[in-house]
Amino acid sequence: MKLSRLVAAISEPPHPQAQNPILPSSFLRFVLLSGGWHQAAVCALSVAVFLLNTAPIETQRRIIDTAVHAGSIGAILTLVMLQIALGLAKLAMNVYRAWLGECATRDLRLVVTHRLECMSEDGSDLTNGTGLAMILAKADDIGAFAGSSFSLPVVEIGFLASIFVYLAFLDLRMMGISLLILAPQFVFVPLMQRAINRRVAQRTRLLRRFGDEILSPSRAEASARRLDEVFAVDIGVFEIKFTLNFLMNLTYSLGSLLVLGIGCVLAVRGQTEIATVVTFLSATTKIVDPWNDIVDWARGLAMTTVKYDLIVGGLGMGPTS
User: Which of 37, 75, 6, 59 is nearest to 283 (CA)?
Assistant: First the structure.
């Protein structure tokens, strides 16, 4: 009986905001209050995921290395078990993230609904379609991001760090070559991402003005011009985003050729093994997805923060004590 109560207490969805009519002024604080200790738990699970995701790289190297001599059934079985364990850990992490996201979405809807009910008594304009859009549209996006806001960078940054530490242990020279792949992106990615974030914030402000103007017949002409401004901002975002993707893909391609070319030269000279070259080439391809996920996460954080600030500001909610 006590065990069942313990399990029920652990699995109880966090809802510190459900009874609180005021949202925190900071989105990150909202994530912490909404998720509670579950955010720490899913981050711990994320650590296990990136460690399991790194282990197959060394196992593959050993398979290639031993296959040249006599082969290794044990190494292959180890790789299979690691892949199964990794799949199960990812499944648990994704379900946990989704559950936290739904908890955050529910809490946000409860608070906004409570606030709109109070404002309806005062005859506020926000109790019409604008308030409904806040609940149905923005709450889903904010809640979905809140579920993985901490665990996603833990997984991706931890995986990248573990790869480079492993490569440094394997061959420091080749690790330096692999690091050159990301070096140019440390310069142009933040610059272009900030440009995208500025345009996203500008687009949001324009749409808010459009929403205010379209309700007034005397300002219909101004609202039409506002849509042209939104269109221009959207095109600018697409241009920067696609250019960023092109530069990132170009960097990856040139980096892979660099690793392969220098690695083969070192292998011919007897300064490294062919299995090591294959391992570095495999690791080079593995850093693409996590780095792209980190860039997407940074973009999502900026956009979600803007949406959350709109709800807090639109409802006139001050910071919590």
Answer: 59
Least confident of 52-56, 128-132, 241-245, 307-311: 128-132
Q: Report the phi/psi class of residue 270: left, alpha or beta, with left for phi > 0 and alpha for psi in -120 to 50.
A: left
Of 119 and 247, which is predicted with more confidence? 247
Query: Helix axis angle, 274-286 relative to 288-314, nearest 10°?
Result: 20
Asked if residue 202 lies in contact with residue 233, where contact means CB atoms within 8 angstroms, the answer is yes
Query: Residue 27 corresponds to which amino acid?
Result: F
Q: What is the dihedral of CA 90, 91, 95, 97, to 10 degrees?
A: 10
Compute CA 249 distance to the chain's CA centroid, rounded to the nearest angstrom: 19
Q: How far is CA 17 from the centre of its chain?
A: 24
Between residues 38 and 307, the one the model is more confident about: 38
Rounded alpha-carbon distances, angstroms, from residue 190 to 63, 96, 182, 194: 39, 30, 12, 6
- The tokens of 28 are what? 């990150």
The separation between the first and the last C-alpha atoms of the chain, rounded to the nearest angstrom, is 38
pTM greater than the 0.90 cutoff: no
